[in-house]
Design brief:
By secondary structure, this protein is of the alpha/beta class. The protein has helices spanning 4-22, 40-48, 59-68, 89-95, 105-114, 144-151, 172-191, 207-212, 222-225, and strands at 30-34, 53-56, 77-80, 98-102, 122-127, 157-163, 198-200, 217-220. The longest helix has 20 residues, at 172-191. The protein binds pyridoxal-5'-phosphate. GO terms for molecular function: pyridoxal phosphate binding.
Length: 228
């Protein structure tokens, strides 16, 4: 079985090839390693292989890992990418650097109010239900503009962009469609002067399609840590 370091090398090659195809600088794509369900030792291996940014889905599990790796905290960036309930916002505001899954004003307001003053603003993305799936979390595309304008006015958070988990699609062309739709949504917000720089899209199965459509953060779990 390949080691985590070997897997990271392969993912980096996939990102580089997609950037070359898209005519993009490889530095314009950030690799976020999704470590959910894997122990802190696996994260440590990824750190030894050069990664510094990690994504967690579950608040409690994430906070435990952040604690287990507290000695490295200054070097690391922790991103919450899973659903967030309002009774968990305080611990998230106190421990994480980013939240990708904001889909309600109330959550963003609480994160802003609860962000400790000695920390930099919490970096936020709005999660968009870009494929229109009934069961998926995320805000409807039509509602993004109003939420973005409201969140961008909060003092202790900084709205950076949009995040989506598109429905799986079989072929490469079909994979690109929802990613393109998310980029077009971001472009529309930026035409209104919101100054957003982040498109969090693309996972193990579709990172190439996402990069071709402008992803700036790809969230990769399985290809780095193995099957969950
Ligand atoms: C689990 C997860 C990922 C990583 O998915 P892989 O297919 O394992 O790469 C990315 N984003 C979110 C929101 C996830 O929940």
């Amino acid at each position: 079985m390949a080691t985590i370091a070997e897997n990271i090398q392969q993912v980096r090659q996939r990102i580089a090839a997609a950037c070359a195809q898209a005519g993009r600088d490889v530095q314009s794509v950030t690799l976020l390693a999704v470590s959910k369900t894997f122990p802190a030792e696996a994260v440590r291996e990824a750190i030894d292989a050069g990664l510094t940014r990690f994504g967690e889905n579950y608040v409690q599990e994430g906070v435990e890992k952040i604690g287990a790796l507290a000695g490295l905290r200054e070097r690391l960036e922790w991103h919450l990418i899973g659903p967030l309930q309002s009774n968990k916002t305080r611990v998230v505001a106190e421990h994480f650097d980013w939240v990708h899954s904001v889909d309600r004003l109330k959550i963003a307001e609480r994160l802003s109010a609860q962000r400790p003053p000695h920390l930099p603003p919490l970096q936020l993305c709005l999660q968009v239900n870009i494929s229109g799936e009934a069961t998926k979390s995320g805000i409807a595309p039509e509602a993004v503009r109003e939420l973005a304008l409201q969140v961008s006015r909060l003092p202790h958070v900084r709205l950076r962009g949009l995040m989506a988990i598109p429905e799986p699609a079989a072929d490469a062309q079909a994979q690109r469609r929802p990613h393109r739709a998310l980029r077009e949504l971001l472009d529309a917000l930026n035409r209104e002067g919101l100054g957003l720089d982040t498109l969090s899209m693309g996972m193990t199965a579709d990172l190439e399609a996402a990069i071709l459509e402008g992803a700036t953060i790809v969230r990769v779990g399985t290809a780095i840590f193995g099957r969950r």
